[in-house]
Amino acid sequence: MALCTLEAVTKDYAMGEVRVPALQGVSVQIEAGEFTAFAGPSGSGKTTLLNLVGLLDVPTTGTVRMEGQDVKALSGHALGRLRARRIGFIFQSFNLIPVLTAFENVELALRLAGEHGPDNGDRVRKALVDVGLERFMDRRPSQMSGGQQQRVAIARALVKRPALVIADEPTANLDSKNGEAILEDMRRMNVEHGATFIFSTHDKMVIEHASRVVHIMDGKVLQDERRTPRPLPPRPPANGTPGDGTAA
Amino acid sequence: MSDMGLILRLAFRNLFRNLRRTVITSGAIVAGVAVLIGGMGLVDGLDENVLRANEQAMTGHVLLRPDGYPTDGRSLPLEQAVPLPAELVSRLDSDPRIQSWTPRTWFQGRAVSGVDGMTVRAFTYDDAREAATFARERWVLKGAWPDGPGQVVVGQWLAGLLELEPGADLVLEARTRAGAINALGLRVTGIVHTGTPAADRVIWVPQQTGELLIVPEGAVSHVALRLDRRAQADAVVAALAGTGWTATTASWEARDLLALNAFRRKAISLVVLVLLLIAGTGIANTVIMAAYERIREVGTLRAMGMTTGGIRALFLVEGAVLGMSAGLVGALLGGTLVAWFSAHGIDLSGAADQVGDLAMSSTLYMRFSWGPILAALAFGVVVSVLASIYPANHAARLNPADAVRAD
Q1: Which of A177, A223, B121, B283 is spaced 20 to 30 A from B49 at the CA atom?
Q2: At residue B1, does pLDDT exceed 60?
């Protein structure tokens, strides 16, 4: 069974009295373990597609299934519960909660997922160690660089072991060196933990890391391309994070 | 999502994100709560002041008058004074709640000192009973209490007007109970300051001297009772019904002033209500600004699974925490003020002229009690939560797909 399926999905937005089609009959199937990029220029509909896959929005017509379940039949509360437990999010602007430390931001994902086990602390620490932030757990976002903040966001998305991680242009606000490092982190999570990633981008460097690229244009799928991603370099030393060391 | 610990943590920390704004917003709540506590402490203190002044110098806890005797305190018809019946005396002496009692025979007269003369009020008294019934130990006496015939004590305010000092002479003119005009030359042995302006405007005439001046033939116009506790007053009044004498409590005697205080209490409540409405507007503004500034955070929390109820609770708790913090500061300020003045008092002796014949103590002690403090705190929190409902609903209705990418 596919992890996520979109069948003949359309999505219209109302702009005054005019209805603007953002997606026009898109059908895509995401399998578990994929590292998929939705690629396309600004306004192509890739963010709208991510919103639907991430259960942040519902289609105007068509069907979105998450692990076989038609999401249109779910209430807002049930969608929220599903997002909390099965989907992790990584945003272009990191979207960390500024009044919480790195540790608390990651722990937040577990608490919102309803996980209050005694091993939560260990899970949070491990998630932060996996992204090389063992020395930054007590720092607030304002005390970290952009790259470090995005790593916290990755740890936050993955700590609850979600079925799917949605990343909306995760490297757009980072310099190329940090962007590359973030992508390698995401790739490692994909390879080592089997986490399924879907991300949107229009950056060629980012697309090189994807094993599948769905090209979107004017709200339609232009091409669905399976490809061999760029080889993953060896993991860097445990106590180093590229471009970090001082707060941004 | 009902993780209240998480919501409380977020709400507390969010208050410190824009500390200056939080402090400014809190100002009105602080002021409202402090004014409420201080104002209520002041009015409660005024109530106590009025009652204490009556009890300690004028009426005792319970006052008896012959049935039909005027209760307005202005007319003092000597002909309506009557001798104390033996049965009443027996009941007063046998009631264990009555610590002591003292008869007074009030009359009006004219005091002449040198070329100055003025209409005055005076009463005859039994020295031993008077000392047992009223708090003489709290009064300030310049000179001495009379110990022989032809001697009187004059209230401080009256002595000031007539320029009397201990040892001075005055002539007191009055009608006898039978209606004849009489006058006596008297020696002033003391000037008394009771702290109750109404009592400081009269002349104390010992019974022995009063017999010569007004010839009351044992008639008494008032009997003041001192009880074990003020709370017993209503029961004692009820027990003395049907004696031919009308019994009233000190609070009944002060009913006009107490009614005025009740009006003051309402006026203060109105001022506080306006202050808290202003505070509510400020809090609503602060929370709605917070909601607009944190659209992306709200979207992120929604994306991560926080329910609309959780978002609503987050902003409501933030408003409540703001109200509670500001309320605590206001309660601390107001409570400290009231506690200080309940211990040290406010000297009103400079305003004695304005007080006139009203039975009020010249030292006002605010009354400290936890009731107004807790009520003010609760009111501050309720106002804050009510003010946060609209912004909380606004935040909860945000579409997470749009909110996560808001600027």
Answers
A1: B121
A2: no
The torsion angles phi and psi of B240, rounded to 5 degrees, stand at -95, 10
Is A153 part of a structural domain of the chain?
yes
The reply to whether A117 touches chain B by the CB within 8 Å rule is no
In a domain, B285, yes or no: yes
Q: Are residues B227 and B270 in the same domain?
A: no
Q: What is the CATH number of the domain that holds A169?
A: 3.40.50.300
Residues 6+ away with beta carbon under 8 Å from B270: none
Q: What is the ipTM of this complex?
A: 0.89
| Contact across the interface for A93 and B296, Cβ inside 8 Å | yes
One domain, residues B216 and B327: no
Classify residue B184: in a domain, yes or no: yes
Are B157 and B235 contained in the same domain? yes
Average pLDDT of chain B? 88
Query: B405, A84: Cβ pair inside 8 Å?
Result: no
B303:A92 CB<8 A: no
Does residue B11 sit within a domain? yes
Q: Are residue B287 and residue B186 in the same domain, yes or no?
A: no
Minimum distance, in Å, between the CA of residue A112 and any CA atom of chain B: 6
B154 pLDDT band (50/70/90 cuts)? very high
* Six token digits for residue B328: 């605590």
pLDDT band with cut points at 50, 70 and 90 for residue A246: very low
